[in-house]
Write a structure and sequence with these properties.
alpha/beta; 41% helix; homohexamer; 286 residues; eight-stranded mixed sheet; two-stranded antiparallel ribbon; 21% strand; Carbamate kinase
């Protein structure tokens, strides 16, 4: 990387000004996952971005998944991961592992990492303060303890934000009987954003955004009105694993989030670029 | 159990009054462990006691260990537990498991249980808000990632208490490099109590208290001045596994906690009896 | 009384938990009078109950009458008490005595008693902060300075509650000209409960509750919908001195108090039993 | 009275400005008694002065006695007042009457009067919130329940002031056993002023102030340093009933009150003139 | 001036009581201008009145003009003042002078004067906190930078009031491009009063009020309903320079100010007399 | 300027993170003057920097001078500027002009500019809230109304900061008699910084910093301990107009400001570079 002159530095900081103003004291929910969670360098960049955003006065909530680490832990205890239609079949033992890995390992390690980047954070899961009430996901196939969100109580998140902590949220929930459910992190991020009346929910993915031609990154579609989504699905432009992600975006916008963005977690500092420049990267739904 | 008359009920509630007054808005740290954590019925009784104390205006902090569940999980992943001088040898992989089991499984399950008993709680570990800064425990033998407490920042606990949540604390800590350490829960409870200027720290154990004659429960010593402890050790009345526990009590009292109590977690509702009656059970150090 | 075992004690406290939760931070207005005000032992029990409820987080307001002491004082100054239709004829001198006895003697003595049971309280009357604006009660017979409530300003009560004091209220009121009125304490309690949007108003009486057969205490009617009251009056089940008391209950419920209860003040700790157990005693109107 | 021109009115208001500034948000304790309490017109003037001072931002506390009304009530119930060395012998029955008359009759009537002059006030006595803890006054003669102040807890007064109420204080106190004591109002006012770190304590009397020649009002001594008092007593200038009053002044100043003033309650609006003009009337001790 | 007796003083203060009560914590906007701004003695009287009102708990906002000083300064720099239809033609250089004289000279000197009379004040202009957004006044003739109010943001005024400062407001405004506009002070005072939901807006003028016969001061019309104004204009009773002033009054009342008053600034302490006596002087519109 | 890649942008923002953390919620006083105040582009850059710093959570106070504009205005009114020893001789008329130009023209125009860059600000001078009390500067020569600071009351600045406004301060002061004084802006900035216990005071100048060889910018001395200053003066390295500036720095550091920096206002964004990078520019005194 070329050295950047002081002048250029000042220029860049200066150009960030209107964006900082725009998001000042606003809430942004970031769903963190995929490659950016596995690659060590990207991970450090994300943590540093989150701390920076938090420091310039943005109320950032970090929601995370952790599929690969769950799979790995299940393998360690000699249990095979079983997926049905892209969703993990979750028996009781698996649910325990999910809770343990998400809320104990990944969540607290993220908290620790943020701390090392100078941020103050609290690691929460859907059980804390009864934050995520879940019920068994209904569908054609029985997926065990895969949960559907019944109700979100954002009080613990707000207590964290109001006391200067970055809330890091692991998406396990419980029902009235105390069963543990595995909750899809994209869905949870979208719902939490809606409940917090967030300005923005950002889903980090491993793709460039929504491409008109999947083979050609230059065909990125930067803006999509949520009303256009059904037609894009019909045209096959939104397809496969993108469908649930984009449905989360649509859901979030429908419930009052100003915008929902899918960004490429493989680009370092993609969150900063998305928030603090006019170079929105990825695809924004509004 | 005989039915209790309304009159007796009123009587009992009434007699609890001076104790409730005494502890109103005071902080009590309860170290929860041992049999009371394994036996399902005792567990429910502890949770219900904690919620009740919290409801009558006592600021309760629940600190827990979880040795047996760690051992079990290590076994599951095919790793044998190794103890040196009563302390678990903790290599990096073990430290990960400790974090996962304590902060992810036990901690959040306790939070969930408290919730079902009508309490609001937040599950924290020593990483949250940088609460427990640790360093490698120095000693004759290398125990790996067994930690010594460097500094406690009680802000996350106080945020929880001040917002009406019961803080549940898993005692894993980190150092500046982000290494995870396994911290002894008795020690952590004592130190947290000291930092919070708690009124009382209660260590739940699997014995009746300090007995003059280990074979005879009727020889229970109800009160011990901390200055008497060295002599009791010399006499062999305090010995074996009791020594570190009682050193935690002494340490807590030295650092300003009004009293430190060892109670028998095998008796149902032993916490309630200890706090809300004149029948202090177990042994109190002051 | 048989000794109660620690286990039973814990059990009782434990069973009170859901009731404490239910009323936590809610307001309860207790109209205190009758035998429970004369019998010294019952009096102590009531004071202790009030302090306990206040301590476990319930906002208790104590409203009291004091007919017998007024009569006694009038006798002392050589003035006979005159009753018309159960209501005291109140000339100006009598009104002065009523104010003096209620607001100076009984009220402040209750404050002092609560203090000795460990409670903090403030003794108020309807004149404080202009709390009870009254006017001459209109009716067929002229009762002198017997007052009808025009307006309640609960600010002084709320100042007391919000600053941790138990408000004790003597029910004398004034009109714009500064005349003193004797206000029926049941009516005042019901109105104050309504203005405070209380959860519960409890009227202490000298009977067991509403009995289907006045001679047989086993015919107690535990629950009455306010809509059933007219029919119960017609049937003669509600009659005599019960009518105005029950009309206060109906009025309170109509104005938004969740429930109004008539309890037997002759039973020690009847308030505690009513609030903190499922053994509601007396008759509840909802 | 001659009509006052608008110009003169404005002039007067204007000249009050520096005094209002000086006392803004400061605390002034007024001991109200004597002729100003008996004469109806003077009483109205005092009430109106108190409301005005309170309105212009001065924290006024009104402390009152009530000897004549106590005597009158005792007479009504056929009990003779007995005085020893100027102090009322107070048996238990008398103590009850004192409490009743001071806290129930006079206190609440003053509250009601202030209300009619547009002020908001709360009527308190030494029992409220455990404000005045007393013990039996020790001396050569047994005076019964005449009390000496052990401790003042000004919390109830401050709650009133901070919530915009003028506290009106009847000076009856209690001991730990709940006995009622008659407390000298001058003494109580001085002590309350000291505890509140008041700017000023004003004792209303029925004399012009401290006169060098008791027969000649023109010999008024306007300022006295507390250190001069012993000499003035020796010279006989301070004598008789003035001694205890002036000792209260000295005590107040010694305990930190800026100044203590004895004013002539027989002059209408003497409080206003004292506070809001440079024509301090009466004698000031500093 | 005759000496005023203490009694009269007390009388006057006493009679001000109901007016102080009426305006306590209410907002009053005073437009200060004309003779009262030029004559040194009147100026001192106004400042002292403002401080007094502020001290007795009235939230006073002082809005000022400054035509003569602007004219004088323009003359100094060799620029002639040009008026069209009573309004100053304001080229860019003039606008600079207006800003400088109003916001720098007059405004800050008033702040300094209030300070010397014991008041705390902050000098603001329409630029502070973006308080007055203006645009070019549209009309038949081009008046240059004479502004029309687009929007008032009263936050800076409220910050001042809530922190105990008297806000002094110079009526220059800006548009989005940063141009400076000269804003009519009467209009600004009326609008600010409306935005603050003021109780009263007082315009100081150099006439006695609205006179039925301009030559005869005894024909003062003390009260005018805003609905009567058109008819009064038609009758010629309101005419000339009075028309815009009275239109400001009408506008203020229409936008929710309780009353708008035109008072004679040539009478010393006219503000005090208007606010604190029943001798409203001048003409009140309601 | 070359286009800056997104990656570089993110990099720059990221590298600013530790500096933002360091100054978060800390106070920085910037003395703005010289070329940066005259050159339009530099001015815009300064305003934008101030807004950015304020937005990322730094409490920025902007103190300004305005010599050239004062000179220009004096010339306009036909008055010559007279300097004695580098200080402007200030007769009464000049003092008026100083007040008018500083507090009315420059100050409010800066407020307006900050507003256009998205900042909220309040324009204050030393008269507001009695902020700067001054007295005549004593010296060999009579300089008229050139003031020496007697006392700073920072309340108005803190009110502005605490309510989210950037305080812009014009350095005119007054004495008890209400005379206006011209106060040196460097001195005022240093004193204000000291009173606010600021982290940093930054003086903008028209030179590169302290140079070992005045002719060679590469001989910049980046750090100076205040104790070294006398020796640097003796060596002639600090000389001429630098002496008073550096004495301000020394004074500020002596009074508790962490560091005082002289930066080159001719470099665009020099404030940003100074604060948000490790490339401190200019000379820092500590």
């Amino acid at each position: 990387m070329n050295p950047i002159s002081n002048m250029d530095r000042a220029q860049v900081l200066n150009q960030a000004l209107p964006y900082i103003q725009k998001y000042s004291q606003k809430t942004i929910v970031v769903k963190y996952g995929g490659n950016a969670m596995i690659n060590e360098e990207l991970k450090q960049a994300v943590m540093s971005d989150i701390v920076l955003l938090s420091l310039v006065g943005i109320r950032v909530v970090l929601v995370h998944g952790g599929g690969p680490e769950i799979t790995e832990m299940l393998k360690k205890i000699g249990k095979e991961s079983k997926f049905i239609g892209g969703l993990r079949y979750t028996d009781e033992e698996t649910a325990q592992v999910v809770q343990m890995v998400l809320a104990g390992k990944i969540n607290k390690s993220l908290v620790s990492l943020l701390h090392r980047h100078g941020g103050k954070s609290l690691g929460l899961c859907g059980m804390d303060g009864g934050m995520i009430e879940a019920k068994k996901l209904q569908g054609e196939v029985d997926l065990g303890f895969v949960g559907d969100i019944v109700k979100i109580d954002t009080a613990p998140i707000e207590v964290a934000l109001n006391n200067g902590y970055i809330p890091v949220v692991a998406t396990v929930g419980t029902d009235q009987e105390g069963n543990t459910y595995n909750i899809n992190a994209d869905t949870a991020a979208a719902r939490i954003a809606a409940e917090l009346k967030a300005e923005n929910v950002i889903l980090m993915t491993d793709i460039r955004g929504l491409l008109r031609d999947k083979e050609d990154e230059s065909t990125l579609i930067p803006f999509v009105q949520v009303s256009e989504v059904p037609s894009l699905i019909r045209q096959g432009i939104i397809s496969g694993g993108m469908i649930p992600k984009i449905e989360c975006c649509v859901e979030a916008v429908r419930r009052g989030v100003k915008k929902a963005v899918i960004i490429d977690g493989r680009t370092p500092h993609s969150i900063l670029i998305e928030i603090l420049s006019d170079q929105g990267i990825g695809t924004m739904f509004y």
